[in-house]
Amino acid sequence: MKDTTYPPSDAIVAGAHVDAAGYEAMYKASVETPDTFWGEEARQRLDWIEPFTKVKDTDFTLGQVKIKWFEDGVLNVAHNCIDRHLATRGEQTAIIFEPDDPQTPAQHITYNELHEKVSRFANVLLAQGVMRGDRVIIYLPMIPEAAYAMLACARIGAIHSVVFAGFSPDALANRINDCQAKVVITADSAPRGGRRTPLKSNTDAALLHCSDKVRCLVVKHTGDQTTWIEDRDVDVKAMMEQVAPDCPIRPMGAEDPLFILYTSGSTGKPKGVVHSSGGYLLYASMTQQITFDYHDGDVFWCGADVGWVTGHTYIVYGPLANGATTLMFEGVPTWPDASRFWQVIEKHKVNQFYTAPTAIRALMGQGTGFVEGHDLSTLKVLGTVGEPINPEAWNWYNDNIGKGKLPIVDTWWQTETGGHMITPLPGATPTKPGSATLPFFGVQPVVLDPTAGTVIDETKCEGVLAIADSWPGQMRTVWGDHERFEKTYFSDYKGYYFAGDGCRRDEDGYYWITGRVDDVINVSGHRMGTAEVESALVAHAKVAEAAVVGYPHDVKGQGIYAYVTLMNDIEPTDELRKELETWVRTEIGPIAKPDLIQWAPGLPKTRSGKIMRRILRKIAENDYGALGDTSTLADPSVVDELIENRMNRG
Ligand code: ATP
Ligand code: MG
């Protein structure tokens, strides 16, 4: 079966930052002479207070892993994202804020305004005794204050750690304690999809388990009534009025940590990923501009939450470093109805739109009626991130949102990588539905034999995905646990950064992420990525979503266990179960036929929308007593339902 290929249109190629020839030349330079390549990029893209003399000093050897870029350079991230733009674009909109409720007016915050807000916020932090290197937890809704808080930390050299506003008090307390934060910034409550999360009372509950020295800064956003503890709680907006409107920037070393971000926890206990100031910002700036082919004056919308790395890099740091207009959306795609994304695109004339397969599948399940009638003609580039995108969802996105004309960038990367690693470039890379295609500049992917750990040289192959050399956006360590950093990423395959994902490389050298390595199943000696079976299931008209895991099987070694969510109006029947078995059989082959299919009204997902397969694996194995860390689950009740109706009771 030959994959359909979509070459970039002539129109895109003509105006693009990088075309096919450009990609080849730049990629070659980036891996053959990284010092020259990245040195030039860093000097051009960023303002340095003290220039660096050394570009790259990295080592992937277990026991001495070290990742340093531009080590002796001095800069300030907030200066690069705000101050340096003021002379030329002070009155340009930096942030468009679209509130949860479409009836509430949107806000346009200019670079001048951003400068003042961030400076005042920084002064509030200083007044609370926050010093360079101190940790600040940010537990806020998707409101401009979240960006102000992040940039205020950067301005004074404090290290922020954003905790997604959907997390529980427990998850919040764990993170406050893990990084020993001095301050937590929260809001009274967080409106989302017409409902409200009581952030302040969650924070009160979390702080019961933390040092009583932790200060609580509260942004009064909705005006909801909250408890108030004198000497601990601070009204941020009121304080911002009282402090000076200007705050000098603090010169920081390129290797000083900018932030800590905990991974989503889909494979285990979240890790405190540490990112740097210089290398990270450079990588954020370059990928935002090149991957999305962002041009001056465009309106850029990354629909992720700032609680995820995607929000850090592509709502805040990348776009603002480039002097872009970035859209911040407080709401959800399905409220007041499933047309909200398309309404927002029309309203703000969005040019680049970036979302996740889980959102696309959810909207796909609602039908195309919600897309019709919305003017999406300003769109130039579409993006996706977070999971392998099933070709079915890719095609829906392409047909209905891109109208068959727009490049779709399927960006493979991780919290750990800081920015895009494998992705098409709009004007350079012909795309294939479901493939993340080719590496970004400086990224050297290798496919390793999973057991031998040796590099597979054949172009067409399958194995585990690893990276052979460092790139500027790479995480530097796990907060407080460098050993865990080395062990997690550098010990399985010596000399490589191991991403934890499996992949296949096709005859054109394109990469296809097959999911977590843990998700590879071995049926009667045949190795199979679960993503493939899931894609086949989702391609069936009655299936909305599917998750596939392996479970011990007497005869085959491993059997295939599929959790299937049906489209809204479809009844689960035994007949349909048979139909799906036959469907997968014909789509992939007899070997892929699911042994057990469980109807799943909902799937356990992280708050970032990823399916937690480790939980599904436990249930499939009939070993649901110890599910591990479930603190990042979006809706824990889903799990009980699945356990109750499990298919394997042996
Ligand atoms: P944890 O590491 O705590 O288990 P996580 O891996 O879900 O959490 P993230 O860093 O947010 O946390 O997710 C990165 C992972 O998401 C990648 O390793 C990959 O499995 C998946 N992923 C992201 N983008 C893509 C993509 N475009 N195609 C395929 N998989 C993707
Ligand atoms: Mg991970």
UniProtKB/TrEMBL annotation:
<dbReference type="InterPro" id="IPR000873">
    <property type="entry name" value="AMP-dep_synth/lig_dom"/>
</dbReference>
<comment type="similarity">
    <text>Belongs to the ATP-dependent AMP-binding enzyme family.</text>
</comment>
<dbReference type="GO" id="GO:0005829">
    <property type="term" value="C:cytosol"/>
</dbReference>
<dbReference type="GO" id="GO:0003987">
    <property type="term" value="F:acetate-CoA ligase activity"/>
</dbReference>
<comment type="function">
    <text>Catalyzes the conversion of acetate into acetyl-CoA (AcCoA), an essential intermediate at the junction of anabolic and catabolic pathways. AcsA undergoes a two-step reaction. In the first half reaction, AcsA combines acetate with ATP to form acetyl-adenylate (AcAMP) intermediate. In the second half reaction, it can then transfer the acetyl group from AcAMP to the sulfhydryl group of CoA, forming the product AcCoA.</text>
</comment>
<feature type="binding site">
    <location>
        <position position="524"/>
    </location>
    <ligand>
        <name>CoA</name>
    </ligand>
</feature>
<dbReference type="InterPro" id="IPR032387">
    <property type="entry name" value="ACAS_N"/>
</dbReference>
<dbReference type="Pfam" id="PF00501">
    <property type="entry name" value="AMP-binding"/>
</dbReference>
<dbReference type="InterPro" id="IPR025110">
    <property type="entry name" value="AMP-bd_C"/>
</dbReference>
<feature type="binding site">
    <location>
        <position position="543"/>
    </location>
    <ligand>
        <name>Mg(2+)</name>
    </ligand>
</feature>
<dbReference type="GO" id="GO:0046872">
    <property type="term" value="F:metal ion binding"/>
</dbReference>
<feature type="binding site">
    <location>
        <position position="585"/>
    </location>
    <ligand>
        <name>CoA</name>
    </ligand>
</feature>
<keyword id="KW-0436">Ligase</keyword>
<feature type="binding site">
    <location>
        <begin position="192"/>
        <end position="195"/>
    </location>
    <ligand>
        <name>CoA</name>
    </ligand>
</feature>
<dbReference type="GO" id="GO:0019427">
    <property type="term" value="P:acetyl-CoA biosynthetic process from acetate"/>
</dbReference>
<dbReference type="GO" id="GO:0016208">
    <property type="term" value="F:AMP binding"/>
</dbReference>
<feature type="binding site">
    <location>
        <position position="540"/>
    </location>
    <ligand>
        <name>Mg(2+)</name>
    </ligand>
</feature>
<feature type="binding site">
    <location>
        <begin position="386"/>
        <end position="388"/>
    </location>
    <ligand>
        <name>ATP</name>
    </ligand>
</feature>
<dbReference type="InterPro" id="IPR011904">
    <property type="entry name" value="Ac_CoA_lig"/>
</dbReference>
<dbReference type="Pfam" id="PF16177">
    <property type="entry name" value="ACAS_N"/>
</dbReference>
<dbReference type="InterPro" id="IPR042099">
    <property type="entry name" value="ANL_N_sf"/>
</dbReference>
<feature type="binding site">
    <location>
        <position position="527"/>
    </location>
    <ligand>
        <name>ATP</name>
    </ligand>
</feature>
<feature type="binding site">
    <location>
        <position position="310"/>
    </location>
    <ligand>
        <name>CoA</name>
    </ligand>
</feature>
<feature type="binding site">
    <location>
        <position position="501"/>
    </location>
    <ligand>
        <name>ATP</name>
    </ligand>
</feature>
<feature type="domain" description="Acetyl-coenzyme A synthetase N-terminal">
    <location>
        <begin position="23"/>
        <end position="81"/>
    </location>
</feature>
<feature type="domain" description="AMP-binding enzyme C-terminal">
    <location>
        <begin position="532"/>
        <end position="610"/>
    </location>
</feature>
<dbReference type="Pfam" id="PF13193">
    <property type="entry name" value="AMP-binding_C"/>
</dbReference>
<feature type="binding site">
    <location>
        <position position="516"/>
    </location>
    <ligand>
        <name>ATP</name>
    </ligand>
</feature>
<dbReference type="GO" id="GO:0005524">
    <property type="term" value="F:ATP binding"/>
</dbReference>
<feature type="binding site">
    <location>
        <begin position="410"/>
        <end position="415"/>
    </location>
    <ligand>
        <name>ATP</name>
    </ligand>
</feature>
<dbReference type="InterPro" id="IPR020845">
    <property type="entry name" value="AMP-binding_CS"/>
</dbReference>
<keyword id="KW-0479">Metal-binding</keyword>
<feature type="binding site">
    <location>
        <position position="538"/>
    </location>
    <ligand>
        <name>Mg(2+)</name>
    </ligand>
</feature>
<keyword id="KW-0007">Acetylation</keyword>
<dbReference type="InterPro" id="IPR045851">
    <property type="entry name" value="AMP-bd_C_sf"/>
</dbReference>
<protein>
    <recommendedName>
        <fullName>Acetyl-coenzyme A synthetase</fullName>
        <ecNumber>6.2.1.1</ecNumber>
    </recommendedName>
</protein>
<keyword id="KW-0067">ATP-binding</keyword>
<keyword id="KW-0547">Nucleotide-binding</keyword>
<keyword id="KW-0460">Magnesium</keyword>
<feature type="modified residue" description="N6-acetyllysine">
    <location>
        <position position="610"/>
    </location>
</feature>
<feature type="domain" description="AMP-dependent synthetase/ligase">
    <location>
        <begin position="83"/>
        <end position="468"/>
    </location>
</feature>
